[in-house]
């Protein structure tokens, strides 16, 4: 009698849920990067994704004067030892927490969201 492969079956069942969750992520607003926003990012951290992050922050109408600090989280594919995503944590003067801009390995914007008590400009 052949025993069922439960991990494979669970993974196959999780795939449609994962794809459905990804399909519900709306792309972030983008605009031509405000030079002041880009300069604020560059003052805080050196990263090749700063222009893309600045375009998302500009599109979300986050002013450069509100940027207190920035740092990046990195996600790697452990099998290829390659970067697959960056998260820019943007800390604000006007509120607690951070606005997080996620970009892929080529710095293309994925999403923007607020964490730890922060709110997105124009949000609830």
Automatic annotation (TrEMBL):
Keywords: Plasmid, Signal. Residues 1-26 form the signal peptide. It comes from the Bacteria. This is Lipoprotein. It comes from Azospirillum humicireducens. The lineage of its organism: Bacteria, Pseudomonadati, Pseudomonadota, Alphaproteobacteria, Rhodospirillales.
